[in-house]
Backbone:
């Protein structure tokens, strides 16, 4: 995979997936329950699709569970600040929130 994001579209051109760049040589940070992170909110991105600067789709969340699954690697279950739970977020796509209270 390249270092740039890739958007997958269905036959009608509607965005159905966004693949984020992966830093394969960088070790995955180990998160624990209660850690605060910023994660890509796919449900906000999906109806809109790529807007160029997709940073508006990164939202704060709390790690509920951090685990390893064969074939997928490190994953996290999250509780977003809006109250929505999300399961099996790829850990390489999480950014620690520094100084979040």
Residues:
């Amino acid at each position: 995979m390249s270092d740039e994001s890739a958007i997958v579209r269905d036959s009608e051109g509607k965005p159905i997936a966004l693949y984020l760049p992966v830093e394969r040589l960088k070790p995955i940070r180990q998160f624990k329950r209660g850690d605060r992170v910023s994660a890509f909110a796919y449900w906000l991105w999906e109806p809109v699709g790529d807007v160029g600067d997709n940073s508006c789709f990164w939202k704060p969340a709390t790690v509920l569970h951090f685990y390893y699954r064969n074939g997928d690697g490190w994953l996290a279950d999250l509780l977003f600040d809006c109250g929505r739970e999300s399961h099996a977020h790829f850990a390489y796509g999480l950014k620690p929130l520094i100084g979040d209270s």
In short: The longest strand covers residues 58-69. The radius of gyration is 14 Å. The chain has a mean pLDDT of 84. DSSP finds one helix and seven strands in the chain.
